[in-house]
Amino acid sequence: MKKTNNMEKVLFIGYLKKTFMVIEDKCIFKLEDCSYWIQEDSVIFSNDNYIQKIKLVKMNERIYLLAGDTTVLVSQLHHAFQSRIFGFFKGWTGHESYSLSTGEIITQLSGQYIRKCVLSPSCLLFYYKNTTYINVSGTCAEISILPPLNNLKLL
């Protein structure tokens, strides 16, 4: 960590690997160190589909992502991972369940209705403000997760 002045501490300098649009028009940023950060304010962030050099800075007990002229308040997501849905993703009808390549089974909890049809899409699962979400094929839904069967202990 490098201090740039009395009130600012640089936590990370590197590149933005991927940006995900998720709940309530927020972005999740995946950095090149594979950490995930979620936008906490309403600043419009334009990724323009290229890898940007960014900086994470701690100022006044808050963390900001700086990319070019844009400054975004962020917080780290400690429970986020990418996976892939087995078979066809058919969208959300309010009660859909899907198996993931990492072994988990997810079930939709929110009542959102969106129809899509995509074969084995990649997805991002994350826990934010006491809720678990999945972002897949431009959609985002509240879910519950059953762990892989090989991780369950038999009594």
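That was protein one. Protein two is written in the same sequence-then-structure order:
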Amino acid sequence: MTNKYLDSAIPSPCYVCDEALLERNLKLMQRVQHESGAHIILALKGFSMWSTFPLVREYLVGCTASSVWEAKLAAGEFQREVHAYAPGYKPSEIDELLPLVNHISFNSLNQWQRYKEQTLAAGVSAGIRV
């Protein structure tokens, strides 16, 4: 199949990113952050093309991870703030997550009570999803 938008030298299938368009969108997000005081973090569930992280981290303050693997990707490749959220955490996941994240959101008071001591000892900020 021929695609008039892609050079025939580009293998198919493949992921293609228009870096100029990506940077334009990142500049818009940076402006929103600056004007609002909000921090915009990259949701790895929606966009985890780590080859773009050197560009993206120039504009966004960090990533949000919904699994240990995403947290490892964020900590290792994005190298900025890492926020974690998942509906539930196993004790083994908490042990792996806490050294990787700056913030963790719990889904219930029960989760917070279960992991409070570990979280505070690790120096990780925490929140409860309402």
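The chain has a mean pLDDT of 93. Keep this in mind for the problem set.
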